[in-house]
Specification:
Elements (H helix, E strand, L loop, with lengths): L1 H23 L11 H5 L6 E8 L8 H11 L6 E7 L7 E2 L1 H11 L8 E8 L3 E2 L6 E5 L2 E4 L1 H6 L9 H16 L52 H12 L11
Parallel strand pairs: 1-2, 1-4, 3-5, 4-7
Antiparallel strand pairs: 6-7
Helix pairs in contact: 3-6
The protein binds zinc ion (ZN).
The site of zinc ion has 4 residues, from α6.
Length: 252
């Protein structure tokens, strides 16, 4: 009996040592675009989960749309799932990039580690440190959307509506995780805005530079783009096929 007990202790301590080591070396977080190929190709990740972590009364309104947009460009033969979860972030005033990263890695799990790719969309109370910013992408798998600022960005007479702004900003930030525009590759098409790096110069693209700031309320027609344009899609196809060289990837 004692021998069995000793073996049991030996086995469990060996196991916990092994698991402990994994805990000590955390997953690399990367830069926005660092998991672009992980989404665009299916060679390692055949499934994807989009996690929406939101503060009470900050329910995300762009979940289905962003899933549709990702599905249109990424290769996930075993499907993309939405997982929504209410979270108390404890910060309700001003957020920095580090605050967003800390909250995501505290409340969420790894992005990689299995055949499922996990991206996180945070919807906290409060604003970004620069409160004209509506959304940010802070590492390879993390986005935050600041709904308090989205509400403020609603256009004259509700055009565009706060809901439309939120949906466009959510897709826009997902576009940064896909590496748009020129974040982890160099496009053969001249569509990056000269004065707003990482953004499109086409106001019909969801990657247009004004989409993640409160300038969106000034879209006079009230029609906000919520889709990638042909140049964006061509870049994504080039990355997926290998025709465009993609750098700073967290796996491959
Ligand atoms: Zn942006």
């Amino acid at each position: 009996m004692r021998l069995v007990f000793v073996i049991f202790i030996f086995l469990t301590s060996a196991l916990s040592g092994c698991i402990g080591e994994d805990d000590i070396s955390p997953e690399k977080r990367g830069i926005p675009g660092g998991l672009a190929l992980a989404c665009l190709q299916d060679s390692k990740f055949t499934k994807m989960e989009l996690h929406f972590l939101y503060e009470e009364n900050y329910d995300p309104r762009g979940m289905d749309l962003v899933k549709t947009r990702i599905n249109e460009v990424c290769d996930k033969p075993n499907g993309i799932k939405i997982k929504a979860e209410m979270v108390d972030f404890t910060i309700d005033t001003s957020w920095t990039d580090d605050d967003v990263r800390d909250a995501r890695w505290k409340h969420g799990g790894n992005a990689m580690g299995s055949s499922t790719l996990h991206w996180y969309f945070l919807f906290p109370k409060g604003t970004y440190s620069d409160d004209s910013v509506l959304g940010v992408a802070v590492d390879a798998s993390t986005i935050a959307i600041f709904k308090d600022s989205v509400e403020e960005a609603e256009g004259f007479l509700g055009r565009p509506s706060a809901e439309d702004v939120e949906r466009s900003v959510t897709v826009h930030e997902a576009g940064h995780l896909l590496g748009l525009v020129n974040l982890v590759y160099t496009s053969p098409i001249d569509h990056e805005d000269e004065n707003h790096k990482g953004h499109s110069n086409n106001e019909d693209s969801v990657m247009y530079w004004a989409i993640n700031s409160n300038d969106v309320g000034n879209f006079i027609s009230g029609e906000l783009p919520d889709e990638f344009d042909n140049a964006d899609k061509s870049d994504l196809e080039g990355m997926a096929s290998g025709e465009l060289k993609t750098k700073n990837q967290l796996w491959t």
